[in-house]
């Protein structure tokens, strides 16, 4: 074949290769594979003899083959891609030009590093990426223009940072990414900088800082949009992963719903699509959308089978079985075939790699057999579940305890059931005691939810008020039992903990993908030993306080009374502690009270605006009074003989956290404080504080009346006023640290899916509840005006989590906040009355009771924590 024809074919192959690269970068893998195979066929169709043409042909052949190896791995797995690269590496030695040879080596070693990482060979992958960087930097040293070299260097640094993160080398990972961002920014590679910021977000997620990860993903999206480019789908998937980690299942589901149609059109053969569908199934299960969870899990399972990931297939199958089990247990009708199907799945799983999935499946089957009344079959199935080992996850430990307790109840052995529950809660306490963050402390309650519910059900049937009080305190609001630590500042410890978290994820991922874990486990053990040496338990939350005993509560109450509400199924009760007595009052339907609370809250929201037409005001006020009267009649009046006119400490349950108690007729003008548990209230009452400053903060965009912090400041001899640019997040956090009174007038957003992400809008962005909970010296009393941040998401174990509750858990003694919307003028008037009374010497609970009594329906504030702050 003439040289000119060969040159033409080579040029055509080069152009097709470029189109394949574009398709690859855009995520169109099927199109990319087709184009690259065509390009490879073109270069293979000639064998030039002319030295110049052959040199050009060799370079194109190397580039096409290298890219084809990477794309092939998307569908056939990393081993297939690595096999193709063996031939490519041999071809590079025939390239004469040393700079061109270095360029090709850098590109091929980068691809080889990617594939080695995909195969779980982390150290080897880092070695290949180190080699790629050496070749890229050699070209730079030889005088090649930096503009040509920055992009591959940035990509290699970003890839290597991912490997460093998986090995727990967090500092090295950050160093790589910071360098990548700096290089890309310096040389105008805005997309490269955005990609590196995305990787920084993934690193933050890996080490457990979800708010920082979400901020990074937002920065990345803004950068792409500023360039007029589509945001890569992987950024949306990363955000969904972060949202699921944070428990924001609704938002994660919305994010996945936005990207899944695009992925199905362009990535139908990739593992990423199956992973996205599995995430969607989990989000749906978390939000109780069981039909969607089943569909997504089924689709993910089919795709994972094509990929060949046995762990992924098992995980997707298990989600489907969880859905089937939940439906059957709720209905009370368990098909005979369901336990058998669950057991068949467990028995098909290979051991030991999928032993955990098999154990969970067997326990699901045991619960189903208990519900069918087949206690002997359930006992036999449980006998095949291995005893928990040191590394058995806590959710599996709790599920085993629950199975054993339910079996004991079915056999009429109540004492044995309570013993199982007690042992399970002890196990849970040990795990909780090792947690260092508020969301982790709270999250553990999920694992003991059904155990706690069963305990309350059994004890309530027994009718003992003191025994019920003790079980309630042991099972509810455990987050508030932990002493917040002050002055914790140990960067080395923080770095080691971040490394341990990252390595833990890497081990789970390697197990999931069937890769070796010995080296990762050895490194994890080493980092954990270092963390222990530095003080693993010196996290933000310290030692647990003991559960409050009735005698301690009685001694602190004095002339006050404590009312602790509880429910089991549809039974609502109140445990009343007054004087030296503990009494039990039965209060009827829990659902009826919950519905009245929800309706009252809706009515108060509708009544909030300042300038409603008078006829509408009369209608909404009448409806609100009707619901308040109903709640008063059900929740308060039956306790009148027990509590008299005493001040109250109220421990709500479930939907009763939304009750603005000062609105109820019997409690109007009566000082009352709301606490998540008697233990939490007792800790707040006993807390000691030094006198501090008064801080008044105004956020942006507030109506004039609500933002009049100058007027509030007139009630105090000295006050620090912060507004405009002076009310920035870092500045406000610094002022809150050690303040005696902090009044925050700012727009607030309550995040119901995970209320720790509730936030106040300040001049430079959101102030998250996560961040407020990290203060060294929490403000003694915090007033949250202009928002509904007394609202909580009620998590398992009656754990109320929100902005206000994060303040309480972090060590603030008292939080004043509204439970529903408040009109601008009503809010300003209520706050003026409150601060005037407070400055005159009234206790917070007294000052708030007087302020609410002026106009109860338009001032739905509550006093949280302690009324003494």
TrEMBL record:
<feature type="domain" description="CHAT">
    <location>
        <begin position="626"/>
        <end position="851"/>
    </location>
</feature>
<dbReference type="InterPro" id="IPR024983">
    <property type="entry name" value="CHAT_dom"/>
</dbReference>
<dbReference type="Pfam" id="PF12770">
    <property type="entry name" value="CHAT"/>
</dbReference>
<dbReference type="InterPro" id="IPR011990">
    <property type="entry name" value="TPR-like_helical_dom_sf"/>
</dbReference>
<protein>
    <submittedName>
        <fullName>CHAT domain-containing protein</fullName>
    </submittedName>
</protein>
């Amino acid at each position: 074949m003439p040289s000119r024809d060969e040159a033409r074919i080579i040029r055509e192959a080069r152009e097709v290769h470029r189109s394949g690269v574009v398709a690859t970068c855009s995520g169109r893998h099927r199109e990319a594979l087709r184009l690259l195979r065509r390009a490879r066929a073109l270069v293979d169709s000639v064998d030039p003899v002319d030295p110049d043409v052959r040199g050009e042909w060799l370079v194109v052949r190397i580039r096409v083959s290298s890219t084809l190896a990477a794309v092939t791995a998307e569908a056939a797995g990393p081993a297939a891609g690595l096999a193709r690269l063996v031939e490519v590496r041999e071809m590079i030695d025939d390239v004469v030009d040393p700079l061109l040879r270095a360029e090709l080596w850098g590109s091929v070693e980068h691809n080889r590093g990617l594939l080695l990482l995909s195969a779980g060979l982390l150290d080897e992958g880092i070695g290949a990426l180190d080699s790629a960087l050496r070749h890229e930097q050699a070209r730079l040293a030889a005088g090649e223009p930096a503009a040509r070299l920055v992009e591959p260097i940035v990509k290699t640094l970003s890839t290597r940072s991912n490997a460093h993160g998986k090995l727990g080398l967090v500092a090295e990972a950050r160093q790589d990414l910071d360098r990548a961002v700096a290089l890309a920014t310096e040389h105008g590679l805005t997309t490269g900088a955005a990609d590196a910021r995305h990787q920084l977000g993934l690193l933050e997620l890996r080490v457990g800082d979800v708010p920082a990860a979400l901020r990074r993903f937002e920065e990345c999206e803004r950068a792409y949009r500023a360039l007029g480019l589509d945001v890569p789908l992987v950024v949306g998937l990363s955000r969904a992963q972060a949202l699921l980690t944070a428990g924001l299942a609704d938002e994660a589901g919305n994010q996945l719903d936005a990207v899944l149609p695009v992925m199905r059109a362009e990535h139908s053969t990739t593992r990423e699509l199956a992973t996205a569908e599995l995430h969607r199934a989990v989000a749906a299960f978390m939000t109780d959308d069981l039909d969607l969870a089943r569909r997504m899990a089924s689709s993910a399972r089919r795709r994972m089978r094509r990929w060949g990931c046995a762990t992924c297939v098992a995980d997707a199958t298990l989600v489907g079985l969880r859905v089937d089990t939940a439906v059957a247990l709720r209905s009370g009708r368990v098909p005979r075939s369901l336990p058998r199907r669950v057991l068949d799945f467990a028995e098909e799983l290979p051991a030991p790699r999928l032993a955990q999935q098999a154990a969970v499946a067997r326990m699901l089957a045991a619960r189903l057999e208990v519900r069918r009344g087949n206690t002997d079959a359930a006992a036999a199935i449980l006998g095949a579940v291995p005893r928990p080992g040191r590394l058995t996850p806590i959710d599996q430990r709790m599920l085993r305890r629950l199975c054993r307790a339910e079996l004991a109840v079915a056999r009429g052995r109540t004492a044995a059931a309570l013993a199982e529950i007690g042992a399970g809660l002890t196990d849970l306490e040990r795990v909780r005691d090792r947690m260092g963050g508020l969301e982790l402390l709270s999250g553990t309650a999920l694992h003991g939810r059904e155990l706690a519910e069963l305990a309350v059900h059994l004890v309530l049937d027994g009718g003992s008020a003191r025994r019920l009080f003790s079980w309630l305190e042991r099972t509810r609001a455990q987050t508030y039992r932990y002493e917040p630590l002050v002055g914790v500042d140990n960067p080395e410890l923080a770095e080691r903990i971040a490394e341990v978290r990252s390595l833990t994820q890497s081990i789970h991922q390697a197990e999931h993908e069937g890769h070796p874990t010995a080296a990762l486990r050895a490194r994890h053990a080493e980092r954990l030993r270092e963390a222990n040496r530095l003080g693993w338990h010196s996290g933000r939350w310290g030692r647990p306080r003991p559960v409050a005993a009735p005698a301690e509560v009685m001694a602190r109450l004095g002339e006050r009374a404590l009312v602790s509400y509880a429910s089991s199924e549809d039974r609502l009760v109140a445990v009343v502690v007054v004087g030296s007595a503990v009494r039990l009052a039965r209060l009827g339907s829990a659902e009826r009270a919950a519905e009245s609370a929800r309706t009252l809250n809706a009515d108060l929201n509708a009544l909030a605006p300042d300038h409603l037409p008078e006829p509408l005001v009369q209608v909404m006020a009448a409806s609100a009074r009707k619901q308040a009267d109903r709640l008063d009649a059900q929740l308060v009046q039956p306790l009148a003989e027990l509590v008299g006119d005493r001040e109250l400490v109220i421990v709500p349950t479930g939907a009763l956290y939304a009750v603005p108690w000062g609105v109820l007729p019997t409690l109007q003008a009566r000082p009352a404080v709301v606490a998540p548990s008697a233990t939490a209230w007792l800790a707040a009452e006993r807390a000691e504080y030094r006198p501090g400053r008064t801080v008044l903060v105004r956020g942006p965009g507030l109506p004039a009346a609500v933002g009049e912090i100058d007027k509030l400041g007139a009630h105090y001899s000295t006050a620090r006023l912060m507004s405009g640019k002076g009310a920035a997040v870092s500045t406000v956090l610094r002022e809150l640290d050690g303040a005696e009174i902090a009044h925050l007038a700012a727009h607030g957003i309550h995040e119901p899916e995970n209320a720790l992400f509730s936030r106040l809008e300040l001049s430079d962005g959101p102030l998250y509840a996560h961040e407020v909970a990290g203060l060294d010296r929490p403000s003694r009393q915090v007033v949250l005006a202009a928002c509904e941040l007394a609202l909580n998401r009620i998590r398992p174990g009656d754990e109320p989590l929100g902005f206000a509750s994060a303040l309480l858990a972090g060590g603030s003694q008292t939080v004043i906040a509204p439970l529903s919307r408040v009109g601008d003028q009503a809010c300003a008037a209520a706050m003026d009355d409150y601060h005037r009374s407070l400055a005159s010497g009234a206790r917070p609970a007294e000052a708030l009771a007087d302020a609410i009594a002026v106009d109860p329906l338009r001032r739905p504030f509550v006093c949280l924590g302690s009324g003494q702050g």
